């Protein structure tokens, strides 16, 4: 089937816009390929250092052999539930490589922080910048130039985007991203959400809240709601750098190990020593990036990828813009409802047909580029199949023709919505993003007075004082990348949700983030230019009428135009947010960060 005309138009514009930068990127990685095994171009001293700690078998292979050496870049730590299963992966990967006459070495580790632990804490100010730090650490890991291929062990919010940005600097390497899978389902998400709101209202104790949270986040594996971590997994699969079906297979199962083995095998099959060279930089092209955008819309994925996908695309010489997201949002239907956009979690999504069903439906409607390069070779057809074990052997089964649970996953003929879950907002405040996939229809337009805050804690304090039992738009500013690293503002969610449930018409307007867990309350986020850069959001005053219209895509402060033009942006002292918990070490990141619509990064 031919691709949808809007997808074709967006693709053509993106290709033309990126022509020079993409050509420069491809020339760079093609020049880096070289000939033969990389390590044999090293000096004897360099090479001896490179294999000094290896066992005799690997040492002999690295010294005399010509098979590939695979770099393992790992985000393992045992504080992150999603990354704890990676503890045993290096040994598993080394064994798989040896069985095939190759070698593998842990090239390095990257930092991996958990936003779920740092929410509302000073450490959250480091979260977004950790993405670019991870990219740098990935580059350092690979800088020894000992490798013909690489595998990347990462799952969570900034880790996969950071690893991919770093990996694309080494885009001449055959590469695979290897997930570890979600934890088992815990208590129903709606039950957890109710306890959170009850606690915000003073009707639940801390012990009751902790019990609910502990029953939700209760084991090894990725958190099961559809936030940024699981949006990352969807993206890596639909963009072709996962093995098909790998995203949401549970940890530590025989099938999970078989999928990991296949990832290693595919890297060995596509390195430059063999005859089927297919490096990462030739997989991640304009078509793959737009397939990622389509997947994000079709699943109601994380708003963080309005930052991350832009930054990842730039790393491959591709000039992705928010306008591309907006154009595709109008034609890509919402096919999945996973919490916070529905009652189910990613395990339910996977059981209902998961990625294979989703990709099959989108391909059938011409809403994906099916002719892309992938880890499995040319084309997306391999991603329409479902992995399974047959007497211990990995086999690929045809995708189901119907969803296993229409409350979670639907066909292209009966979507939950006929448009995507992400929209752009424009107006005299600047540009922003809103996720509408779970916003009630009667809250798509909010017209209410502004209440201006410079910290999310001030919102909760005002609520506790009884000052927020009314219609209003909470303007939480000086949260952007240059101000304080663009932290997530999830402490606002229970309070604003509770006020909305009381019947008040409330919304959020911020130059900060709300990520993949933003839900039912209308939230204009990522507003740019940010307050610290003198953006119009710094000119809003308490009492100004603000109109957020998600249907029309507008964001306006309803103030006389002459008065608005005369206003001078507020300037506040942020020094208290720039020290402690390591924040003083990131001053150069804050000073160098680009705007949100350019990816909010430092490169």
Automatic annotation (TrEMBL):
Cofactor note: Binds 1 [4Fe-4S] cluster.
Cofactors: [4Fe-4S] cluster
Dihydroxy-acid/6-phosphogluconate dehydratase N-terminal domain ranges (all copies): 69-380
Keyword field: 4Fe-4S, Carbohydrate metabolism, Gluconate utilization, Iron, Iron-sulfur, Lyase, Metal-binding
GO MF annotation terms: phosphogluconate dehydratase activity
Pathways involved: Carbohydrate metabolism; Entner-Doudoroff pathway
Catalyzed chemical reaction(s): 6-phospho-D-gluconate = 2-dehydro-3-deoxy-6-phospho-D-gluconate + H2O
Enzyme class: lyase
Record PROSITE patterns: ILVD_EDD_1, ILVD_EDD_2
UniProt record similarity statement: Belongs to the IlvD/Edd family.
Alphabetical list of PANTHER family matching this protein: D-XYLONATE DEHYDRATASE, PHOSPHOGLUCONATE DEHYDRATASE
Protein name: Phosphogluconate dehydratase
Gene source species: Luteibacter sahnii
Biological classification of the source: Bacteria, Pseudomonadati, Pseudomonadota, Gammaproteobacteria, Lysobacterales
């Amino acid at each position: 089937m031919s691709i949808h005309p809007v997808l074709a138009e967006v693709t053509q514009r993106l290709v033309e816009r990126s022509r020079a930068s993409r050509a420069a990127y491809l020339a760079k990685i093609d020049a880096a390929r070289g000939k033969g095994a990389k390590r044999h171009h090293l000096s004897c001293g360099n090479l001896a250092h490179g294999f000094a700690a290896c066992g005799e078998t690997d040492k002999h292979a690295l010294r005399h052999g010509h098979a590939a050496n695979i770099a393992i870049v790992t985000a393992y730590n045992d504080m992150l539930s999603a990354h704890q299963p990676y503890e045993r992966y290096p040994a598993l990967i080394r064994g798989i490589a040896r069985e095939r006459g190759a070698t593998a070495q842990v090239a390095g580790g990257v930092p991996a922080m958990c936003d779920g632990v740092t929410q509302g804490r000073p450490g959250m100010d480091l979260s977004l910048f950790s993405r670019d730090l991870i990219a740098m650490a990935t580059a350092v890991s690979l800088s020894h130039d000992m490798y013909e291929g690489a595998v990347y062990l990462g799952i969570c919010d900034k880790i996969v985007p950071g690893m991919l940005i770093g990996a694309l600097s080494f885009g001449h390497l055959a590469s695979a991203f290897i997930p570890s899978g979600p934890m088992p389902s815990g208590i129903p998400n709606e039950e957890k959400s109710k306890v959170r709101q009850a606690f915000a209202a003073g009707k639940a104790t801390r012990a009751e809240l902790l019990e609910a949270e502990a029953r939700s986040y209760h084991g090894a594996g990725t958190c099961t709601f559809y936030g940024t971590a699981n949006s990352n997994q969807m993206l890596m699969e639909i963009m072709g750098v996962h093995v098909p079906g790998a995203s949401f297979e549970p940890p530590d199962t025989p099938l999970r190990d078989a999928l990991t083995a296949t990832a290693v095998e595919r890297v060995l099959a596509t390195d430059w020593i063999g005859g089927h060279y297919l490096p990462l930089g030739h997989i991640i092209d304009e078509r793959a990036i737009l397939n990622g955008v389509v997947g994000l819309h079709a699943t109601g994925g994380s708003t963080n990828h309005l930052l991350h996908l832009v930054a990842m695309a730039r790393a491959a010489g591709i000039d992705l813009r928010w306008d591309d997201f907006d154009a595709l949002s109008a034609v890509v239907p919402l096919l999945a409802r996973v919490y916070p956009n529905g009652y189910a979690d990613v395990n339910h999504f996977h059981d209902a047909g998961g990625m294979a069903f989703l990709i099959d439906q989108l391909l059938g409607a011409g809403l994906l580029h099916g002719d892309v390069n992938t880890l499995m070779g040319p084309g997306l057809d391999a991603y329409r199949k479902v992995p399974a074990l047959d007497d211990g052997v990995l086999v690929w089964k045809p995708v189901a023709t119907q969803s296993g649970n229409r409350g979670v996953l639907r066909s292209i003929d009966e979507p939950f919505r006929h448009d995507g879950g992400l929209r752009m907002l424009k107006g005299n405040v600047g540009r922003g993003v809103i996720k509408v996939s779970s916003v009630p229809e009667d809250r798509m337009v909010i017209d209410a007075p502004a209440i201006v805050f410079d910290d999310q804690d001030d919102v909760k304090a005002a609520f506790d004082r009884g000052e927020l039992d009314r219609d209003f738009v909470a303007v939480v500013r000086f949260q952007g990348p240059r101000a304080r690293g663009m932290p997530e503002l999830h402490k606002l969610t229970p309070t604003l949700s509770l006020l909305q449930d009381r019947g008040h018409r409330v919304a959020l307007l911020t130059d900060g983030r709300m990520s993949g867990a933003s839900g039912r309350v209308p939230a204009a986020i990522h507003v740019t230019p940010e307050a610290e850069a003198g953006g119009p959001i710094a000119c809003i005053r308490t009492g100004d009428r603000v109109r957020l219209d998600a249907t029309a895509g507008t964001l306006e402060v309803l103030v006389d135009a002459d008065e608005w033009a005369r206003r001078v942006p507020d300037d506040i002292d942020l020094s208290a947010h720039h020290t402690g918990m390591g924040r003083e070490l990131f001053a150069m990141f804050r000073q160098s960060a680009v705007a949100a619509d350019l990816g909010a990064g430092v490169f």
